[in-house]
Amino acid sequence: MRVSFNIFLIQFYFCIFFFYTKNFSLWLRRNCFLHFKTICNEIVSI
């Protein structure tokens, strides 16, 4: 669980970084939100 959670944190900060860059498109923003929403559900289920 700790390894998957570390990967989640890395992806989370990576996503936040691109979320605040101007080249981040709306499509990627939406997919990123859904992606972390599912990961959070998996972590909570564990």
Write up this protein:
This protein has helices spanning 2-19, 26-45. The protein is 83% helix and 0% strand. The chain is mainly α.
In terms of topology, how is this protein built?
Layout: H1 2-19, H2 26-45
Helix pairs in contact: 1-2
Transmembrane segments: 6-28
Keywords: Membrane, Transmembrane, Transmembrane helix
Poorly predicted regions:
none
Mean of pLDDT? 70
| N-to-C SSE string, H for helix and E for strand | HH
Spatial gap, N to C terminus: 8 Å
Largest sheet: none
- Shape descriptor reads flat
Please count the beta strands (DSSP E, at least 2 residues each).
0
List the defining traits of the structure above.
mainly alpha; 2 helices; flat
Tell me briefly what this model is.
83% of the residues lie in helices and 0% in strands.
